Amino acid sequence: MTITARPGAGRKAPPVSGPSATPRWWADAVGVVAGATLLVVTALWVSHGGLQSVGNGGPGAISSIGRLFGLWASDLLLLQVLTMARVPFAERAFGQDTLARWHRWSGFTSFWMMVAHIVLITIGYAGTARNNPFAQFWTMIWNFPGMLLAAAGTLALIMVVVTSIRAARRRLRYESWHLLHLYAYLGAGLALPHQLWSGSDFAGSGWAATYWWTLWGVAAGSVLLFRLGLPLLRNRRHRLVVDRVVTEGPGMTSVYLTGRDLDRLPARAGQFFQWRFLDGPGWTRSHPFSLSAAPDGDQLRITVKDSGDGSSRVATLKRGTRVLVEGPYGKLTGESYHGGPLVLLACGIGITPLLSLLGELPYAPGEATLIYRVRSADEIAFRPELEWFAQKRGVRVTYLVGPRAADGSWLPAGHRDTDVDALRRLAPSVAEAEVYLCGPGAWTQAAHSAARAAGAPAARLHTELFSW
Length: 468
Known about the structure:
By secondary structure, this protein is of the alpha/beta class. 49% of the residues lie in helices and 16% in strands. A hairpin with a 2-residue loop joins strand 2 and strand 3.
């Protein structure tokens, strides 16, 4: 079923102040630096006889290849830590979705390289010593400097990798998965020092030791600065508290928050924070919730769907409850939008960041189209607010109501149009518009594919996945 709120008269919104658009070369520069680190460690391996050892053959060649895998694994492990260190310029350049994909890719790649490193080094050393590989492995753990720590770190990383497999993640609550995932920092901290203490590629090489200690220090420093230091400073300055709690619909609750100097909080519509509500046991576990209204300098608003993972407690928050935040994060902002056609596609709770964008972006009457997908009419949230945007800001609001049509489709059941034809009919300007999409992973990917097929350039497609 399709329900459309027709645009009414309105005036163009004033230009929005905020951070300037992120330079496009930032992303390229970060990619070049990341690739360069792998080249550096390869060059260090070559300069210390790596290729020569391989050319000589025998157990030494196996050990040398194993060392190279270990160097690559360590480098990727530190890059993996950096992708989730919440470095502000990386967040602005790539966004959380892209960083999370790179984090996952580098994590699994690093793990299998680490496994190859352990196996090849053990076989190579066992061949040189004419020893049983299992006995050699035991000897290395107990007698080589730093190997006990490395073994403990490897076990921690194995636990993180196992719980990161999609099948395992589906069985875990978000809080449990997030807590287990923090052991990656412990694993990285324990697994790396043995290379500096016992690695033959570093013995007598000041350049190699300087490089690795610098990279390790940058990764650790970024975590301490941006995951701990910056949030502590912002929470001390802004002192957020719950002002009121409002029910928006079945299982959906909005929380209004006030604090100090909120006009100096560098948050934009479309972004999210990690939230901790100091209302009792469990406050240490954070949850990612998007702003559901454009920040106005006086208050913030988030809207939370009860998904059974601790989010249900939001509905019971009391006025005055202290709140700790990390952020803002996310690239689903209007930093590159300066007027013209605008298309927003939301599914379920994905309406929240798009609603905040409607309040901030400087579109003219008739330029903006919002398509809001829900399973039933009872799940439509913010209907009065959306009707206000239709009447006062000239937004064309369309509700797509009904059960899921099929896998790979963003439409509800009952639509005769194809995904692409339906999008062109509901949003005729999609090929020329800035397009914002937010919702569950599969739905967002289907909507993204339809928008691309309808002619929307990749550079004008902005997505946020509501999944972990």
